[in-house]
Write a structure and sequence with these properties.
The chain is of the alpha/beta class. It has 2 domains: 45 residues, Winged helix-like DNA-binding domain superfamily/Winged helix DNA-binding domain (Arc Repressor Mutant, subunit A), CATH 1.10.10.10; 255 residues, 3-Layer(aba) Sandwich (Rossmann fold). The chain contains 15 helices and 10 strands. The strands form 2 sheets. It has a 7-stranded parallel β-sheet with strand order 1-10-9-5-2-3-4, with helices on both faces. The chain has a 3-stranded antiparallel β-sheet with strand order 6-7-8, covered by helices on one side. A hairpin with a 2-residue loop joins strand 7 and strand 8. The longest helix has 19 residues. It comes from Pseudonocardia kunmingensis. This is Lsr operon transcriptional repressor. GO terms for molecular function: carbohydrate binding; DNA binding. Pfam families: Sugar-bind.
Length: 319
């Protein structure tokens, strides 16, 4: 099995041949005994891994008009839009992460305290942060972390990664995302350390979260919430969630056994944070995004062009 070091070495070699020596994909493929498709994938990895960095000296966003339309329609502070790659999840996540990183680079440094929630899209954005300015910022998770193997999309890991990118200070919440029972959750919420961290998160001036869907659950929630519980949430009217806090089409909390087990800020506390960034995209998120925007759950949006068109009621091709 190839190690990460071996893969990085091969990626670096291919990147040098292409960017420094000017060889074509076909020439590299013949020289290295690879397929052209493999060369293309390795060059994509070169950018994803930070081995190759491309700088575009322009401030003009490619979707300026649709960003302006989103701001006007939903009274947002700001919107960022990435290209839509349809069913290609890897390219979609990468593109959304690039645009999310631009959003974080602009909004994090002026903040004094950032609260961050469970999200693969937020994790992709943090991973794309480069050359960020140092900021005297505190980063706090809005909820506990998923039990088991460490994951970059867990709030605790995200808080650490975001703080490190800006040379800030990270705080941890000593609790799971979901307790095994409502009774266990209530005991944990009364713990002095847990209560202090949740109070610190509630006092943040910037919130950065993903928007979940009830149609395709995140990996983290799938390991903590049963299929029967997801079905019950859908029957109760849930259309999406923020860090396991599910909401209905009116943006109101959906009472459930899942909600009773969450160790984290509730929806009213999240809404009370002044600047609320939602990073999410994909067809399964359209209903949840529309609700989060129309009910003020978020007031800054990072999404893809297809999702932007959907929440604006436009033909996707016009985006």
């Amino acid at each position: 099995m190839r190690t990460n070091e071996q893969h990085r070495a091969q990626v670096g070699k291919i990147a040098r041949l292409y960017y420094e020596h000017g060889l074509t994909h076909a020439e590299i493929a013949e020289l290295q005994g690879l397929s052209r498709v493999k060369v293309t994938r390795l060059l994509a990895d070169a950018r994803r891994l930070g081995i190759v960095e491309i700088r575009v000296h322009s401030d003009e966003p490619p979707f300026a008009e649709i960003e302006a339309a989103l701001v006007q329609r939903y009274d947002l502070q700001r919107a960022w839009v990435a290209p839509d790659f349809g069913s290609d999840l890897e390219r979609s996540t990468n593109s959304l992460g690039l645009v999310g990183a631009a959003c974080l680079t602009e909004l994090v440094p002026p903040a004094q305290r950032v609260a961050v929630g469970l999200s693969a899209s937020v994790a992709a954005s943090v991973a794309h942060l480069r050359d960020t300015p140092a900021a005297d910022v505190e980063v706090v998770p809005v909820a506990g972390s998923r039990a088991g193997r460490s994951s970059v999309s867990n709030p605790g890991q995200l808080a650490l990664g975001l703080a490190q990118a800006f040379d800030g200070t990270a705080f941890s919440l000593p609790a799971p995302l979901l307790a095994s029972t409502a009774e266990a959750a209530e005991i944990m919420r009364r713990d002095d350390g847990v209560r202090a961290m949740l109070e610190r998160a509630a006092a943040a001036d910037l919130l950065v979260v993903g928007i979940g869907s009830v149609h395709r659950a995140s990996e983290a929630l799938l390991k903590s919430v049963t299929h029967a519980e997801f079905a019950a949430l859908r029957r109760a009217g849930a259309v999406g969630d923020v860090s396991a806090r599910f909401f209905d089409p009116a943006g109101d909390p959906v009472p459930s056994g899942v909600d009773d087990r969450v160790i984290g800020l509730d929806l009213p506390a999240l809404r009370a944070i002044p600047t609320r960034v939602g990073i999410a995209g994909g067809p399964d998120k359209h209903a949840a995004l529309r609700t989060a925007l129309s009910t003020g759950l978020i007031n800054v949006l990072v999404t893809d062009s297809g999702s932007a068109a959907a929440v604006l009621g436009l033909d996707a091709r016009s985006a």
